[in-house]
Write a structure and sequence with these properties.
There is one protein chain. The chain is α/β, with parallel strands linked by helices. It has one domain: 3-Layer(aba) Sandwich (Rossmann fold). Helix content is 30%, strand content 28%. The chain contains eight helices and ten strands. The chain has helices at residues 7-10, 57-64, 87-96, 113-123, 132-138, 154-168, 184-199, 211-214; strands at 13-26, 29-42, 46-50, 72-77, 80-81, 98-101, 172-176, 203-208, 219-224, 227-232. β9 (219-224) and β10 form a beta hairpin. α5 packs across α6.
């Protein structure tokens, strides 16, 4: 009889940072955004990164998504060493492995909500793999399919951006303040969708200032001054969505 593998053996790292630093030169001054951080996020994990502005949260997200590069250290995403990757390989990573939910939405103004989602799927090589209308319906925009970004509120635009990221099905999902423009009811709906993505074996990493959101995560990573100061389960244990209030 074959023994069942331990949970440790079953883990599949999707994001690995080892000794990662990031320095910016601003005139004669060197600013340290990351001061040697280590982080691992496995497939199937929902991890929240907390910290004040300037703590390094968004820099970490951008480096993982190959939108920025580390000054030193090793960054591995989906098994690919980013420091050893060519520009074309990094482009392929952003297209096929990583999906972003940006705080600034980054929607195409000349495309409808449905077309924005379809475009994201096409860029990721996933055209036709999902129904944009169904995904937009899941984020509460089933009645806004043909509307352009300028016809949508800020919260509605954010939900289109979220739908676009969900539609690709890429194994790594990075979100920067995904509920920042949303009311409680809609924000809860989005959190439920993100948690569902993790249950489908995606690695989900969410950056937020909202400590209440972190209570439903598998792990909470706290950052301060470019360093990770704690990394573990949420205080008091993982909390069901229905018990959250923010």
């Amino acid at each position: 009889m074959t023994e069942r593998r331990s949970s440790e053996e079953e883990r599949r790292p999707m994001i690995e940072l080892e000794g990662v630093t990031k320095h910016y030169e601003i005139g004669p001054v060197t600013v340290t955004a990351l001061a040697g951080i280590d982080l691992q996020v496995d497939a199937g994990e929902f991890v929240v990164v907390l910290g004040p502005s300037g703590s390094g949260k968004t820099t970490t997200l951008n480096i993982i998504g190959a939108l920025d590069s580390a000054s030193s250290g090793k960054v591995t995403v989906g098994g690919r060493d980013l420091s050893a990757s060519s520009r074309s390989e990094l482009f392929a990573l952003r297209r096929e492995t990583v999906s972003f939910i940006f705080q600034s939405f980054n929607l195409f103004p000349g495309l409808t909500a449905t077309e924005n989602v379809e475009f994201g799927m096409d860029v990721a090589g996933k055209g036709g793999s999902a129904d944009p209308a169904q995904i937009l319906g899941a984020v509460g925009l089933g009645h806004r399919l043909g509307h352009f970004p300028h016809e949508l509120s800020g919260g509605e635009q954010q939900r289109v951006a979220i739908a676009r990221a969900l539609a690709t099905g890429n194994p790594v999902l990075l979100a920067d303040e995904p509920t920042g423009e949303l009311d409680f009811k809609t924000g809860a709906q989005i959190l439920e969708l993100l948690a569902e993505q993790a249950s489908q074996d995606r690695a989900v990493l969410v950056v937020t200032h909202n400590r209440e959101i972190s209570r439903m995560a598998d792990r909470v990573v706290e950052m301060s001054s470019g360093q990770i100061v704690s990394d573990g389960p949420p205080e008091g244990g993982k909390t069901p969505l229905a018990d959250l209030h923010w």
